Amino acid sequence: MTGPVLRFAPSPNGRLHLGHALSALLNFEMARDAGGRFLLRIEDIDVGRARPEFEQAIYEDLAWLGIAWEEPVRRQSEHFSDYEAALKTLKAQGLVYRSVATRKEIADEIASREAKDGKPWPRDPDGAPLYPFEPGDAPAGDAPPAWRLDMRAAIDRIGQPLSWQETGAGPDGETGEVAARPQAWGDVLVARKEVPTSYHLSVVVDDALEGVTHVVRGRDLFWSTSVHRLLQGLLGLPAPVYRHHRLILDDDGRKLSKSRRDTSLSELRAAGATPADIRRMVRL
Ligand code: GLU
Q: Its family (predicted)?
C-alpha cells in the first residue's frame, strides 16, 4: 500500500494569508505523519489575475513555514489540454451547452424575473444567483462561448444520489457520509470564455491525474464538493476523501481576503513574525 496523497492548491492571484497557512500546514503534516506524499499545485487558470510575483511569493512563504513539496509543481496553465479532453467527454455525452450570454444579459434576466415573481431569484451556496437561462433559450450571439453543465441532464445521467466521505465538517456541522446537492448550483460553468476550463473542472481532473486521495481545504469550499462529485461521476474519476477545515476569520468575523495585507504571510514575516508565531495564530 502506498501512503495517502495530499495537495495544497493555491491560486496565485494574491498573497497567501493565515487561512492558506493553516491549509498548507494541515496538508503537509497529514502527508508527513502518514508517510504519504505532499504536492503543491498552482491553480493559475485565471490568466487575467494570476501574476508571477504572487506565484514566487507562494514558494517563499511555504518554504519559510518549513513546508517541502515534490517537484515538478503542477501549474494548471500548462495543462489546458487535459481539461479540454475532459470537456470533450462532457460534450460527447451531450451534458454541456454553449452560453454566450454576457454578464449584463444574465443580470438583466435575473432582475426581470425577480420583478415578475416578486421574490429573490434562487442563490447558490456562495450566494450568487443561479444562471437564469435554460440550455435552449439563452441569448444567441457571436461572442466566444463559455460552456455550462446542463445540471438537470447531468444529474439524470448519474441516476443515483451522490455523496462523499467527510472527515472534517461543513458549515452546519455536516460530517461522515454527506449527500451531494449539485442542483443547488444550477448550470455551473465548466469552461470560461477565455480558457477551456473552470475551477470545478480543472480541480477534479487534477486531483484524479495526480492520484490525490485526501482533499484538505477550507470550509468555504465544502458545498463545491457537490459539483466535484458530480463531475467525477460523469468523467469516471475516483472520489478522494474530503476534509474541510475551519476558516481563519478576521476580527470582524469575516473570511480573510487576499487583498487584505495585514494578515498576509509576507507582511507578518516582514513585521518580525516567526513560523512558530504563525502556527500559534492559526491555533495549530
Ligand atoms: N485554488 C483554490 C483556492 O485557492 C483551492 C482549490 C481546492 O483546494 O480545491 O481557493
A: Belongs to the class-I aminoacyl-tRNA synthetase family.
Domains of the chain: 1-78+248-284 (3.40.50.620), 79-244 (3.40.50.620)
Nearest CA residue ID for atom 6, ligand 1: 9
Q: Which helix (H) or strand (E) holds 255?
A: none
Q: DSSP 3-state assignment of 50?
A: coil
Question: What tens-digit pLDDT sequence spans the chain (284 residues)?
Answer: 579 999 999 999 999 999 999 999 999 999 999 999 999 999 999 989 999 999 999 999 999 999 999 999 999 999 999 999 999 999 999 999 999 888 899 999 999 999 999 999 999 999 999 999 988 776 677 777 899 999 999 999 999 999 999 999 999 999 999 999 999 999 999 999 999 999 999 999 999 999 999 999 999 999 999 999 999 999 999 999 999 999 998 877 787 776 666 689 999 999 999 999 999 999 99
Ligand 1: atom nearest CA of 224 is: 9
For the full predicted model, state whether its pTM sits above 0.85: yes
Secondary structure (DSSP) of 164-204: EEESS--TT---EEEE--GGGG-S-EEE-SSSS--HHHHHH
Cβ-contact 197, 80 below 8 angstroms: yes
